[in-house]
Amino acid sequence: MSRDPDWLADLERYNLRRPFLKEQSIWAIWVYRWGRRIEARPPGLARKLQNALYWPLFRLTETAFGISLPRGARIGPGLRIWHFGNIFVNEQAVIGAGCTLRQGVTIGNRHAGGPSPVIGDDVEFGAYAQVLGGIHLGDGCKIGAMSVVLHDVPAGATVVGAPARVVSAAARIDEV
Predict the structure, then answer these.
(1) Nearest Cα to 130, choosing from 157, 99, 104?
(2) Residue 171 has pLDDT above 90, yes or no
């Protein structure tokens, strides 16, 4: 466990002495990271046994804390979930490093079997933000609370509303 750099980066974002006693969301992140490590193992008995333990633990964590982080999703290091509950990440989603989720966030597809979002690094999601479909969110975006994002968002932009619209964009290099 201590050799997983992604897990260590997650723990650093919590900045707590005992996050497992104070933050239920870290449990869901740990189960996700463990599931990814299992998938990286070579096929065999050890992997089968770990999978037999993983699935009930995943379902228990998903049900008890309302956080669904399936191991098929690709989530970069340093994930922080501030307020647990009602968080769903589609199995095909890609989330960059250093992202922050709050309660009620959905990152998923718009229809069964459809494409899922690709999220850049250091993106912050407000409470109950919904990001749906095969869209791309650039690095450093901020997604406002209760926003519904259905289109690409440029790096550094802030979007709000349903449907979401850009209310603040990062200065371009040639404007600085």
Answers:
(1) 104
(2) no
Residues with Cβ within 8 Å of residue 30, at least 6 apart in sequence: 7
> Residues 6 or more apart from 78 whose CB is under 8 A from it?
6, 9, 10, 12, 13, 97, 98, 99
Q: What's this model's pTM, rounded to 2 decimal places?
A: 0.90
- Angle, CA of 41, 47 and 49, to the nearest 5°: 160
Domain 5-175: assigned CATH number? 2.160.10.10
Domain ranges of the chain: 5-175
pLDDT digits (tens, 9 = 90+) for 94-105: 999 999 999 999
Question: How many angstroms separate the CA atoms of 30 and 10, rounded?
Answer: 9
